[in-house]
Design goal:
Layout: E1 4-9, H1 13-23, E2 27-32, H2 35-44, E3 49-53, H3 62-72, E4 78-82, H4 87-95, E5 100-103, H5 108-135, H6 144-156, E6 163-166, H7 173-182, E7 191-195, H8 201-209, E8 210-211, E9 223-224, H9 226-229, E10 234-238, H10 245-257, E11 259-261, E12 268-270, E13 274-279, H11 283-288, H12 294-300, E14 303-306, H13 317-332, E15 338-339, H14 345-348, H15 355-369, E16 374-375, H16 377-384, H17 391-398, H18 418-440, H19 445-452, H20 456-465
Parallel strand pairs: 1-2, 1-3, 3-4, 4-5, 6-13, 6-14, 7-10, 10-13, 15-16
Antiparallel strand pairs: 8-9, 11-12
Helix pairs in contact: 2-3, 5-6, 5-7, 13-15, 15-16, 18-19, 19-20
């Protein structure tokens, strides 16, 4: 069997000699004693893989060399090696594009397997890029930030590393997860999706790990959990920030060992799962506040992908708008919608706090309200008028109409357009409902928020929008 050509870059001459002596049966080894020499050999030779020390003694260090290799040979497998096993160092190296990581005294058989796996990942990259065009093509947009996102998906998709997908609500984090899955060797297996906010502990354990017949009341048959169903494929945890700490600890053990037990079971089950997760929260801040396990975060965050908000890529609005309109018209069997040259203008003046999901809602409203199959700037403005953060809505909210009395009829305060009257009715309902909930708790907003099952910050935000005073604000 042909030996793999390995370039070893390390400033420790003794380690170089020792490694060459032990590894010559498995590898054809070239060595370089500095980062600069290693970069020259990458350009002038054709190694199958690079084994790169992080601490090279003098500049450029290993991480800088890794960055340069990624620019000149993006698909060359690079495995980092060091005596430093700090998780942050590992995470940093993976972010910069390292394929894997070994200690200063690697098991050569394991190293050989790691190199083989890295080469398989390289072979998948061409396939990944083709799949990326088909699947991640749904990540519509030609802006620089979207091109960069697709490039990152193509780079990390074929790997087995766990990816943490960050982004605001409505940016398309699940689409990114599906693109990562499609770009991986696991694409023929399942992508299983589950929310970190799954109800009770028993329900969570049953959903994730499954249960045996008779494990609890209502468990009349065995059930396979999401972890088991995703074996060989990808498990995507959405809203990972909403997972309580005790559940994080349970999942952490399954992630680390690849083994778990069904609820009520006594036998451990193996599952080969690639884990992806998503959040719209700052997890590092939640760690500081004691709401998120640091170890769990490090396991999830082997590589981090950030999905840009719509307001940072407004140049994509024409493409995204056309895609969403075409999809809606096909699903509802409506004639295709045409846009006038000025139709996009009002959309560029809006901040889109709900991102693409909110844009989808506005466009559906525009199609429904329009008497023709052509949308112009006025049609878009009418559709935007119902959005909470639009200038028109903000203006109406600052001067709310008085609450109607108990005997007031509906017609008594219907005096404007459909959209304005609908928004006013919703505001009236919310003011009555939230005021009643406050009164139940003696004016305590925290208790009212807990009873309604929403966050304290979200409850206060809605009270402020409705101009409702609390005991605290008074």
């Amino acid at each position: 069997m042909t030996k793999l050509r390995l370039l070893l870059v390390d400033d420790d001459a003794e380690f170089l000699r020792h490694f060459v002596f032990l590894g010559e049966d498995l590898f054809e080894i070239e060595t370089a004693c500095s980062g600069a020499e290693g970069l020259r050999r990458v350009e002038t030779t054709d190694p199958d893989a690079v084994l790169l020390d992080i601490d090279l003694g003098k500049p450029p260090d290993g991480l800088e060399v890794l960055e340069r290799i990624r620019r000149i040979r993006p698909d060359l497998p690079v495995i980092m090696v060091s005596g430093d096993e700090n998780p942050e160092t590992v995470v940093h190296a993976m972010r910069l594009g390292a394929n894997d990581y070994v200690t200063k005294r690697p098991n050569l058989e394991v190293l050989n397997l790691k190199v083989q796996r890295a080469l398989e990942q390289t072979a998948w990259r061409l396939h990944a890029r083709e799949m990326q065009q088909a699947e991640a093509g749904r990540l519509i947009g030609s802006s620089r930030v979207m091109q960069h996102l697709r490039e990152e998906i193509g780079r990390v998709g074929p790997m087995k590393v766990r990816v943490l997908i960050e982004g605001e609500t409505g940016t398309g984090k699940e689409l990114v997860a599906r693109a990562l899955h499609a770009a991986s060797p696991r694409s023929r297996e399942r992508l299983v999706v589950i929310s970190g906010a799954v109800g009770t502990d028993t329900l969570f354990d049953s959903e994730v790990f499954g249960h045996e017949k008779g494990a609890f009341t209502g468990a009349d048959q065995r059930r396979h959990g999401r972890f088991e169903l995703a074996s060989g494929g990808t498990l995507f945890f959405d809203e990972i920030d909403k997972m309580p700490r005790d559940r994080q600890a349970k999942l952490l053990r399954a992630i680390e060992t690849g083994r778990f037990e069904r609820v009520g079971g006594k036998r451990e089950i193996d599952a080969d799962v690639r884990l992806l997760s998503a959040t719209n929260q700052d997890l590092e801040k939640k760690i500081e506040e004691g709401d998120f396990h640091e170890d769990f975060f490090f396991r999830l965050n082997e590589y981090r992908l950030s999905v840009p908000p719509l307001r940072d890529r407004l140049e994509d609005l024409p493409e995204v708008t056309k895609h969403l309109l075409d999809r809606f018209c096909r699903s509802e069997r409506l004639p295709p919608v045409e846009l006038t040259p000025d139709a996009i203008d009002p959309l560029t003046d809006y901040s889109w706090p709900g991102n693409v999901r909110e844009l989808d809602t506005v466009l559906k409203r525009a199609v429904i309200l329009s008497p023709t199959s052509t949308l112009d700037a006025d049609a878009m403005r009418d559709a935007l008028a119902g959005q909470r953060h639009s200038p028109e809505f903000a203006h109406r909210s600052t001067s709310p109409k008085p609450l109607p009395g108990p005997q007031t009829t509906l017609s008594a305060f219907l005096c404007a357009t459909y959209t304005e009257d609908r928004e006013h009715l919703m505001a009236v309902f919310d003011r009555l409902y939230f005021t009643r909930e406050l009164e139940k708790g003696g004016g305590n907003a925290t208790r009212a928020a807990e009873r309604l099952g929403i966050s304290r910050a979200g409850f206060y935000r809605r009270l402020n929008e409705l101009s409702i005073e609390t005991r605290d604000s008074r």
